[in-house]
Structure formats: structure tokens, C-alpha cells
Design a protein that fits this description.
The protein is α/β, with parallel strands linked by helices. It has 2 domains: 5-211 and 382-402, Glycogen Phosphorylase B (Rossmann fold, 3-Layer(aba) Sandwich), CATH 3.40.50.2000; 224-370, 3-Layer(aba) Sandwich (Rossmann fold), CATH 3.40.50.2000. The chain has 14 helices and 13 strands. The chain has helices spanning 20-32, 47-56, 80-100, 150-167, 171-179, 188-193, 196-199, 237-244, 262-272, 286-294, 310-317, 328-334, 351-370, 383-402; strands spanning 5-11, 36-42, 63-66, 108-111, 130-135, 182-185, 203-204, 224-228, 252-256, 278-282, 298-301, 322-325, 343-346. A 7-stranded parallel β-sheet has the order 3-2-1-4-5-6-7. The chain has a 6-stranded parallel β-sheet with strand order 10-9-8-11-12-13, with helices on both faces. The longest helix has 21 residues, at 80-100.
Length: 414
């Protein structure tokens, strides 16, 4: 008989219906369900999706607790900074809720979503073996591309750099560094930001490992390259449009997403003479995005500050060839591909050189799709085993540090 563990999971973002960070939180929770019964503290935004999923899966033992955001956050604007402030308020309330539970019955705590190396987590102060992450926050835009970020992008880059370094100096963050039993980091850049004592016990494990991947597409592919992401400086969608200007006329670009740079991107397409070959689809539901990837000649990922790679992992899982700016977490994920013929890693150089390299990759994959070349399915990561390994490692380290025997000596996936 296999004895299951009990865990507390802090996952502000956790939703089976969406991608990005909510998909990462959801993937970790589902991986944990293979060997543990968990209480998952989630933000109110994802309550509906979780209720729908539980109604369809009554056999699941995971308990989701919706922790409300503080009342004062209703007056905070829903800007990027406002959402961050709201998250900090929620995190404090989630910590109080966790400490109110009977902690003696739990075997581990895991901070699973919106984890950054410069932010504290209450999971590290519960007196339990703590898995922290995967955390990001260490990736900055390649210096060679700074001139092309525009004034807004460059100011944002500099402000973020200063803010991150200040937050990393706060006493609660330093306490988290000391209390995290099993630190997981998204990429080597974040690992390099950690102090030596923390770096020695950290593991590089991108949260894309935990993504739930749909079945791959086996039908024909078109001549369209797909960009899916927020239209803002840090995603560098302008790189994809500039690349299109160097690609032949039979290459087309589908831009999925919305954001503050949409008008500027449309103007750029007109100025470069590629407007007829660019389609701005706006924000689409996740199933539509997945379908667009499946039937595309390739997917292009140009983010200059990518910590993780959930969208990239989903594109890879669908069997789609990918063009990836070789930087940050996206590079970490792309380099794990077993079939290098299906990935084109573009080293970040000047904007013009980088755009030309992306154009060459676009052309190669579109020509291959037109020729009907088959695309083999890429291997998937064993997320349940990864989760079990991290939980077991945290428990073993906690036992060694405290001298207390854990309730269960071995973690086994069901």
C-alpha cells in the first residue's frame, strides 16, 4: 500500500483553462496529485475555472482554497505595478491562512506560482520542508538589443533592474533564502543572481517541465509563422515583423495577442511594406491559440526577458517547429529538445542581424511545410517524477537540518 503525502501549495495563479503562469501553477498542482493530497491556496481570479474542473473530476482529492485579495486592492489600478502590489497583499493573506491550519499533518509546502528570487514566500516560514519555485526574476534584456527597445522599453528595463535589486535586499526575502529547503530556479541567469550559499543547493528546473501538453498535430501545415504573446517591449514582437521584411513573399505572420505596442507594430508593418503579410488576430482563447500553433509552419518566440517557457513548451508539444531567441528561460527549454532540426536558436545580436537570422529560420520552416515534410512528436517531460523528486529532496534536507524524522521516508508516484 502506498502512503500518500500531504502538502500545502501556494499558487496565486492556477487555472486549467489558460496558459502562461496560471498554466504553470496548474501543471505543478496536477503533478503533485500523483503522490500527494494537497491544499492549494489560489487567487480569486481562477476560482471559476477550478470549480468547473472539480465538477468534472469528482474523484480528485486536491482541495482548492480561494484566498481573497485584501479589500484595499479594489482601489489599486490593474496596471503591471498595480497587479504586483495586489499580489503582495494576497501573499500576506495566504500566509496567514496557511499558518492557521494544523501544520503537523503536512509533509511539505510548495510555493508554485509567481515565485521570484527577490520576493519572499510564507511557505518558507511554516516549519515544513519547503520547495520554492521554480523562481525567476534574473533575466534582463540582451544589451545588444537595448537600442531597439524604444524609450518606454528601455526605461522599463532600467526601473525593473533597480527595483529587483532593492527587493532582494529586504529582510523577508533574505529569510526566504534561508528557509527554502529546495530552491528551484527557472534558468541559469536567475541562478547566477542567488548568493553562493543558496546557489549551492538550488536546482535549475524550468516550470515548462510541468506544462500539460495537448496531443500533437499530424495534419498538413500552412505557410504562416505564429507569434503569440502580449504586444509589449519585453516580448519584442517588433523583431518578428522586422524579420518578415527579410523573408520571401510567401512567408506570412500571424500575431496573436494584444497590448500597448499594437498600433506601433501595425505602423512598423506598413513602413516596412509587409502589412499584407501580417495579421493581427488580437487576444484569442487558449484552444484557438493551440490550434493556430498546430497548423503553423513554425512558432516564433522573441521575448527578451523570458523567465520560463510555458507557451514554448505547448508549441513544442504540438509538434510545431520553433524559432527562439536564445536567451533566458526560453533558451533553457529549447535546448532540451531531443530533435535539433525542429528548433532554431537565434543568438541575440544587433536588431538587424537578429531579424535576418529569424527571417532565415522562418523561410526554412515555411519551405519545409510547403514541401509536406513530416514533423515527429517531441518527447514530453515526466512532470510527476520531477515533482516527487523535488518533494523528497526537500524532506530529506529538512530531516538532515532539523534532525526530525519525516512521516514518510520515500515518495512514490502512483
Amino acid at each position: 500500500m502506498i502512503t500518500r503525502l500531504n502538502g500545502i501549495v501556494i499558487a496565486y495563479a492556477c487555472d486549467p483553462r489558460t496558459g502562461s503562469e496560471p498554466a504553470a501553477g496548474w501543471g505543478i498542482v496536477r503533478s503533485l496529485a500523483s503522490f500527494a493530497d494537497c491544499v492549494v491556496l489560489v487567487g480569486p481570479e481562477h476560482a471559476e475555472g477550478l470549480r468547473e474542473w472539480q465538477a468534472a473530476h469528482p474523484e480528485d482529492t486536491t482541495r482548492f482554497v480561494v484566498v481573497k485579495e485584501p479589500a484595499w486592492t479594489g482601489f489599486v489600478p490593474r496596471t503591471r505595478t498595480g497587479r504586483f502590489v495586489t499580489y503582495l497583499g494576497w501573499l500576506s493573506r495566504a500566509g496567514r491562512y496557511a499558518r492557521s491550519m494544523d501544520l503537523h499533518r503536512f509533509d511539505f509546502a510548495w510555493h508554485a506560482a509567481y515565485a521570484a528570487y527577490w520576493l519572499p514566500t510564507p511557505a518558507a516560514s511554516l516549519g515544513l520542508p519547503c520547495v520554492w519555485g521554480p523562481v525567476g526574476g534574473g533575466v534582463t534584456a540582451p544589451r545588444a538589443l537595448w537600442p531597439a527597445l524604444g524609450l518606454r522599453g528601455l526605461v522599463g528595463e532600467l526601473v525593473d533592474c533597480v527595483a529587483v535589486r532593492l527587493m532582494a535586499c529586504l529582510p523577508p526575502t533574505r529569510r526566504t533564502w534561508r528557509g527554502a529547503t529546495m530552491p528551484l530556479v527557472q534558468n541559469p541567469q536567475t541562478l547566477a543572481r542567488l548568493p553562493e550559499s543558496l546557489r549551492r543547493r538550488a536546482v535549475v528546473l524550468n516550470h515548462a517541465v510541468f506544462a500539460e501538453i495537448a496531443a500533437p498535430w499530424t495534419g498538413p501545415r500552412g505557410r504562416t509563422v505564429v507569434f503569440a504573446g502580449r504586444l509589449e517591449a519585453r516580448k519584442a514582437p517588433w523583431l518578428a515583423i522586422r524579420a518578415l521584411a527579410y523573408a520571401p513573399a510567401h512567408v506570412h505572420l500571424l500575431m496573436i495577442g494584444d497590448g500597448p505596442d499594437r498600433r506601433r507594430l501595425a505602423a512598423l508593418a506598413r513602413r516596412l511594406g509587409v502589412e499584407p503579410r501580417v495579421t493581427f488576430a488580437g487576444q484569442l482563447a487558449r484552444p484557438a491559440v493551440l490550434q493556430a500553433w498546430k497548423t503553423a509552419a513554425a512558432a516564433v518566440f522573441t521575448g527578451v526577458r523570458e523567465e520560463g517557457g510555458i507557451a514554448l513548451a505547448e508549441a513544442i508539444g504540438s509538434g510545431t517547429p520553433v524559432i527562439v531567441l536564445a536567451h533566458g528561460g526560453a533558451r533553457t527549454v529549447a535546448e532540451s529538445l531531443a530533435d535539433p532540426s525542429r528548433v532554431s536558436l537565434i543568438e541575440p545580436q544587433s536588431a538587424d542581424v537578429t531579424a535576418r537570422a529569424i527571417a532565415a529560420a522562418m523561410t526554412r520552416f515555411v519551405n519545409a511545410a510547403r514541401a509536406g515534410d513530416a514533423v515527429a512528436r517531441e518527447r514530453q517531460w515526466d512532470s510527476a517524477t520531477e515533482a516527487a523528486t523535488m518533494a523528497a529532496s526537500a524532506m530529506a534536507r529538512h530531516r538532515e537540518a532539523t534532525g526530525k524524522a519525516d512521516r514518510i521516508e520515500q515518495v512514490t508516484c502512483a
